[in-house]
Amino acid sequence: MTTIPDHAEADLPAQYDPAATEAAIYARWEQAGCFTADASRSMRVGGDRHPYGILMPPPNVTAILHVGHGLNSAVQDVLIRWARMKGMEALWVPGTDHAGIATQNVVEKQLAAEGLTRDDLGRELFVDRTKEFVEKTGGVILQQLRSIGASADWTRAAYTFSPELSVAVREAFVRLYEKKLIYRGHRVIHWCPRCLTSLSDEEAEPQETTGALYHIAYAVEGDSSRSITVATTRPETMFGDVAVAVNPADERYQDLVGKHVILPLLDLAIPVVADDYADPAFGTGVVKITPAHDANDFEVGRRHGLPTPVVIDMHGVMNEVADARGRVPQALRGVDRFEARTQTVAMLDAAGRLGKKETHQHNVRHCYRCDTVVEPRLSDQWFVRMAPLAAPALDAVRTGRVRLLPEKWVGVYEHWMTNIRDWNISRQIWWGHRVPIWYCKACDAPDNVIASREDITTCPHCGGDVVQDTDVLDTWFSSGLWPMSTLGWPNENATDLKAFYPTDVLVTAPEILFFWVARMIVFGYEFMGDAPFHSVYLHGTARDTQGRKMSKSLGNGIDPMDVVHLYGADALRYTLIAGMGLGADVFLDPDDLDKSFATGRNFATKLWNIGRFLLKNVGDASVRPFEDLRPDELGRSDAWILARLDAAIRECDRAVGPIRPAHGTWPDEERAAGLRLNEFAETARRFVWNELADWYLEASKGRLLTPGADAEVARSVLVHVFDQALRLLHPIVPFVTEALWQRLPGHVDGTFLATSSWPAARGGGDTGADFEVIKEIVEAMRRVRSEYAIAPGKTVDAFAMTSASVRTMLEGESALVSRLARTQLAFVDAVPSGAAANIVLSGGTQLIVPLAGLIDVTKECERLRTELANLEKQLVALETRLGNPGFIDRAPANIVEAERAKREEWTTRAGLLRARVEGLCGKA
RNA sequence: GGGCGAAUAGCUCAGCUGGUUAGAGCGCCUGUCUUACACACAGGAUGUCGGGGGUUCGAAUCCCUCUUCGCCCACCA
Q1: Mind listing the pLDDT tens digit for each residue in A551-569?
Q2: Which nucleotide is nearest to A602 (CA to C1')?
Q3: Cα A744 to Cα A143, A201, A436, distances in angstroms
Q4: Residues 856-875 of chain A in contact with strand B via CB under 7 angstroms
């Protein structure tokens, strides 16, 4: 570990070495408690500061950091560091998710490697083993987050399966149950035959699949000459058929309604029912009804009072599971569903019942955790009644209590919320919060189902034995409570809860808008009576150069830790933040990290070198306090850089945006304001690099080398401006800025940039216009030098023809012009004769550069003529506009005024240019 | 099938409620080891703002339409 001297000598390496500094800096931040929020300082509990809270989307406890986490955390860290510097009591709650199915799958894989299954261990041992695994290797990601600089409050790290959070889960479940918002339902749900659990609608992901549509002929009972044909993609489910349905309006089949058809292979008579569900336009217009294996068929079956034979078991294997005696042919029993499909088709073919087979594009749902094809299955599950809960959550977004950014997600959210379906929250796995429901074996009254906040062993009604429901809850049920449970809910008097709920911004990926975000809002209203946050920042995805999502399976991912080791956390953060528009994807090349992260790495190095320059040229002798400088002491470049700093501060503030809605709800004009972190990064970069480094530093070199009062002013301004720049950049690149800030002259031991204040614009004062003129001359002269390929070492003479005031000013800065553009500036009252380049600057100043021996007159004339032609073309367009009566009448006065002023300037410029062309090249 | 969004420089994107000669980063070209930085400095080139139509004094910006991509939702067996 390297220690950081407070006032380092100037012999720092030319290249920033993040590895040597980052870990040490982070350790010092953490030791000093920089990131630990003090709830008592929140205004909500009588403190002196506005609270500002962010809740980390808890990564899976088994996860290791990938670039998506990096991106997500970088955004949050920029915001929380910014809020902290803004003087708010900033709390970023980190934590992990026990991730039910995902974690269970990992442990099952380990067991499989040992030749074991979870059943070999039994429930209790399996849960113990998983717990042990999680304790030992879980939470690695939280450590990794430190190395990318995440300034979370680790003293409050939470875990969705901790004892505290388990209390919250039970409380929420029981309350909802008591309000009859949780109920047990017997219906067809999505079942993963590999994970052996049910899934919510959101967890069963549709994938576009090319399948086959098989036509099967069902003979009409009592009329062997007639048959009707059904079309199905899953022929193996035919053994569970209890009817065929036709549309009541479909004339083709009207006479068959009420009659029976013979189910092939089984010779079973099943009724023909009329139901609107059958679409006359699809396939043959006849649909087979398999209530136990299709959610829609289940509804049809219910409407018509049909039985529900189950012919596929929990493993996705054909079997007579329930109400299905004699329905599965002997040959198919115990056969996997896909193999059974092939065999069924062959059997139908042999029986002469198979019609055509068409290829068919359709969506097949897959398990979001293991990608197995989901099987619709009839079973008993716990559901949350969503419609009443969704209403306030929908309203929150509509009224602006909660804003979603980018706003395109609002429509998606509203659509989902208005068509919301009940949420299946029970899972038939072992790793998770056990459903807090017990069944009494003995008594029936009032019913035998007991929901309890405490574990119970006996029935509160009859004292008999009870057994707990074996299901666990959907992992998203506990995540949905995250904003409350991490702050102490259900203890409504918990200080953190009072101090920080509701929080401010939630940063996450749009993929989990419904899984997580919507449910947090729902629970927030149900249990706390308010939304958990006022802004949702939905960021994009990390993609490779071909636009593919980075993923483990494709092997196109980038390990953020590699980037940290190679270029540092700041390089990673800056590259991600600067490259990511609001909601836009980030494109990186996993095969060329050097190129991908050059932006951030180069920027960190640039900052480092500005620091080196400062330390070398300013030294660590005491510096006049900036506040003591009088306006008349400031040089032209000082005034200019201070004005630019003010502008940069304002632009950064505007980019990050309003902290929170002023009155609880976002007004329309602020709904999309702020959180433009890429604009923030770009503005800060432009200021530091293109203004501070490229101009102010260059302008200060001469001054610093000449001891005296002006050098003291320059030292003071330079330190002040760099200090402010480091503050502006700290949220994005915390390490290098902290390392440099602590080396600034006057740094007080034990203080951190991380907990210092955000810059405020000073306002008023000199706008730095004088320096702009100098800048323009330097730029013009550099162009001339480049254009005419003048040797770099050679000094050029230039004559300026300008107003007396500008002339006086320029005379005072001739040394600067000389140094920056290697130009010897003199003044004339009239354009001298002879070959020369002539440049007209804004404000009418003319620069005449004699180029005897250097200039190619033909080329110069060519250039001037082109310039003149372009200008004249623009002027014509401008005249047309100004000559248009409609424009004068309708356009706002200030626009018209601006256009007139422009005409004036361009006309003058064109005149001068024309004269120059005539002088140099003769009449055209 | 329904809904939403996008199309601007070679690439990734800014361009806010219509109004300077449409911008940035990266890339590209030309010079330069100028005493903080070659991970740098200086200079430069590049766009019928997806096509067509309309509204307007004025359109990259608003409206319609077409084309092409993307996203979300959905029970079409």
Answers
A1: 877 888 899 999 999 999 9
A2: B39
A3: 30, 57, 59
A4: 870-871, 874
